[in-house]
């Protein structure tokens, strides 16, 4: 029989619409602005401290929506976005060093929706607010670090071949080694040039003033710098992923700069500390009494500068060999970091420790920093900022090797659980191949995001209203079908984006507006075809059947073509272009479903089971 669906098809449409409604509902419950309070010592905060914070907020006319406690952490939900920064400052001043206070956006989805794992769409930087960082990679430091690694490997090679040397010096792109005789230098040159082909070699001086000078070639310098910025990109992406930021952007800009955008991040100080951290670890043996002075280095402890230890210059492994790291507490309740090494790192650690049982091994914390100073030109009076990089080195621990270590061990001697957590994060995400410095920092506040959301929603509402009015005037009852399908299409689009965890941006809202237009376009093709068949003398039932069947190919062709364009935009585009392509792609698929199946189901239910002499179309 014409214009009748089997029962299973009606049930399928109903299931899809119900699921779409459930997963789109969380978007009606926006996240609450909140502050999160946790103990700096890792234990639970006293409820009386939270009562003091609650009283202080009330005295400052900051309205609290709810107060929650979970695993020793307290979450204070606020009524208004504008109160968030003020509430954090009040709580921080009141609790002092006893607690850590951070900004948060607390999920407000009802528990019955959370039972279905339903959550709202993620909003992009232009809608939710966040931070924008422009970072600069120190290319000179990248070269210096590579030369120091090569120098350590060369010293080990020379010692294994029993070739005497005195000093190793690193300057810009040149590495030089002093020897006691020309014969030792020439022998060392043959050995080193075989294993290190990236250098240009030259010999200087004779006798006890013999020096081997190794200069990196231009091609090697270019490769090292490219590796540095690509490795930094990878590390920064890993760190951002550890922060749990949805749809971050980390991309290269120019020869030595990186752009990082973090939507939804409100605690910019914490984000900046994690993103810009240049910390790394080195594991070294403590020097013996008979070790030559040029092979040792004296370093102090981070938490006790009065203490120091004399270490070997050679490094056993660095943080680059860490495959995973997690923070926990030892048997005395002190913070520690549990470390697992990769295969190469485990082999090197085992080789170094099994022959040095009873000897001390140090964990050295290295951090690259910079200090900005304002310099005034005496002639023009112009002020410029000069960056002076420097390196801070400090010992975390110095422990006796009791037995040969393998791929797993732990680091103790950390000051706080927060320091342990951040160190574990940095080790998991990898160390930077070269130091980075913040050139620019911009914060997009929640008010700007709210304004963008308001204007975006207004554009959708205006577009939707105009389309609804046009369809009602033009197609009457069939216009009602089209408008119902349009609302269901928007619901399904939001539901699919929420289920996939896709990020909604301002260009994405433009994609939604375009989707609404394309959804109506499919209905217009079908309805105009039905009108044409009625004018040609077909019966009502035959005209409906022919209208849907003969418009099908045109609708699919038009939508598939647009879908291919959207896929191409997503594959080659970045940032806003991807946001537009995502919503457009999903919208095309939901439009096909609602235009071809949902409206047909409604027409079948109204007209398919009875004789009809005239259509209101």
TrEMBL record:
UniProt KW keywords: Cell membrane, Membrane, Protein transport, Translocation, Transmembrane, Transmembrane helix, Transport
Localization of this protein: Cell membrane
Bilayer topology term: Multi-pass membrane protein
Membrane-crossing residue ranges in chain numbering: 7-25, 456-473, 480-502, 508-530, 551-572, 584-607
GO cellular component: plasma membrane
Pfam families referenced in this protein's UniProt entry, alphabetically: Sec_GG (PF07549), SecD-TM1 (PF13721), SecD_1st (PF21760), SecD_SecF_C (PF02355), SecDF_P1_head (PF22599)
Family annotation (SUPFAM superfamilies): Multidrug efflux transporter AcrB transmembrane domain (SSF82866)
Keyword Protein transport found: yes
InterPro entries, A to Z: SecD, SecD-TM, SecD/SecF_arch_bac, SecD/SecF_CS, SecD_1st, SecD_SecF_C, SecD_SecF_C_bact, SecDF_P1_head
Every Protein translocase subunit SecDF P1 domain range: 229-286
Protein export membrane protein SecD/SecF C-terminal domain: residues covered: 439-603
GO biological process: intracellular protein transmembrane transport; protein targeting; protein transport by the Sec complex
Domain of life of the source: Bacteria
Annotated ranges, domain SecD export protein N-terminal TM: 2-103
GO molecular function: protein-transporting ATPase activity
Domain SecDF P1 head subdomain: 298-434
Similarity remark: Belongs to the SecD/SecF family. SecD subfamily.
Subunit composition and interactions: Forms a complex with SecF. Part of the essential Sec protein translocation apparatus which comprises SecA, SecYEG and auxiliary proteins SecDF-YajC and YidC.
Function comment: Part of the Sec protein translocase complex. Interacts with the SecYEG preprotein conducting channel. SecDF uses the proton motive force (PMF) to complete protein translocation after the ATP-dependent function of SecA.
HAMAP family per the UniProt record, alphabetical: SecD_B
Name of the molecule in the record: Protein translocase subunit SecD
Organism: Halomonas campaniensis
UniProt lineage: Bacteria, Pseudomonadati, Pseudomonadota, Gammaproteobacteria, Oceanospirillales
